TrEMBL record:
Keyword flag Transmembrane: yes
GO molecular function: xenobiotic transmembrane transporter activity
Sorted UniProt keywords: Membrane, Transmembrane, Transmembrane helix
UniProt cross-references to InterPro entries, sorted A to Z: AcrB_DN_DC_subdom, Acrflvin-R
Protein name listed in UniProt: Multidrug efflux membrane fusion protein
GO cellular-component term (any): plasma membrane
SUPFAM superfamilies: Multidrug efflux transporter AcrB TolC docking domain, DN and DC subdomains, Multidrug efflux transporter AcrB transmembrane domain
Residues passing through the membrane, by range: 171-190, 197-217, 223-244
One Pfam match: ACR_tran
Lineage of the organism: unclassified sequences, metagenomes, organismal metagenomes
């Protein structure tokens, strides 16, 4: 958590695993207990009956039923050190003080343990600093986990972070699939593998232009910008189809290749600008 607090990417970090509950840990000296004729079961039962308030039975008085609860007087168990003064009987009937058989260690523990996928877990929640995106936050958290956590620890996402990571991977798959499908459809339409390749060469240029404008405007790569890039691919591919188709028609009419390309580009310039403007205004 210290590294998360120090990171400039996060603010107001918190974890649900808090060590705030006092705990007394008892360690039994088994060798000494055996020498004195006391088993570990006797010690455990004595502590259980004296501290747990367990119901031992019932008794009836004046027609009413009452529970019998085994518990040491509260004044005699207010402090962890009072456990040392408890006596129990060995197999010879002699009373032995518990202080001779145990070591007591005071500590703190979490008041509640949480589980995720059947493993003990701790959930870290944090807000993002101004100007930071959820993608940057996840990358920073992964970096801190790699540097701090040992190999036997595992991390997992939940809530909005999990949905963002899953949607990002799905969009990347959709992005690649869209390019492949567009190429195959164009290859079937033009009955050629060369013309679709010419059309698809405009896609990297369009993506580069989109990234430059995003950088200039201070925008980040998020789910909305990824959807916009996918739409841009479709728009650029449509414009390329029209230009290539018009150029092929002019070549079939007898025009030289370069002249046909220039005439097709000039003829389709205004419709392309109008389509792009209407799409931008519609968004």
């Amino acid at each position: 958590m210290k590294r998360v607090y120090e990171s400039p990417v996060f603010q107001m970090a918190d974890a649900d695993l808090k060590f705030s509950k006092p705990e007394a840990r008892i360690t039994i000296n088994r060798d000494k207990a055996n020498l004195m004729g006391i088993s570990t079961q006797d010690i455990a039962q004595t502590l259980q009956y004296g501290l747990s308030g367990q119901r031992m039975g019932y008794f009836y008085m004046n027609g009413k039923q009452y529970e019998i609860l085994a518990e040491i007087n509260r004044q005699q168990r207010n402090k962890p050190a009072d456990l040392r003064s408890i006596y129990l009987r060995n197999d010879e009937g002699t009373m032995v003080q518990l202080d001779n058989l145990i070591s007591l260690e005071e500590n703190v523990a979490p008041p509640q343990l949480y589980h995720y996928n059947r493993f003990l877990s701790a959930t870290i929640s944090t807000g993002l600093a101004k100007g930071r995106t959820i993608g940057e936050g996840l990358d920073e958290m992964d970096r801190i986990a790699r540097e701090v956590l040992p190999d036997d620890f595992r991390t997992a996402l939940a809530g909005d972070s999990k949905e963002f990571r899953e949607s990002s991977s799905s969009l990347m798959f959709a992005f690649v699939l869209a390019i492949v499908l567009i190429y195959l459809i164009l290859a079937a339409q033009f009955e050629s593998f060369k013309d679709p390749l010419v059309i698809m060469l405009t896609v990297p240029l369009a993506i580069a232009g989109a990234l430059v404008f995003m950088w200039g405007a201070g925008q980040t790569m998020n789910i909305f910008s990824q959807i916009g890039i996918i739409m841009l691919i479709g728009l650029v591919a449509k414009n390329g189809i029209l230009i290539v188709e018009f150029a092929n028609q002019k070549q079939e009419a007898g025009e030289p290749k370069m002249q046909a390309i220039r005439d097709a580009a000039l003829q389709r310039l205004r419709p392309i600008l109008m389509t792009s403007a209407s799409t931008i205004l519609g968004l």
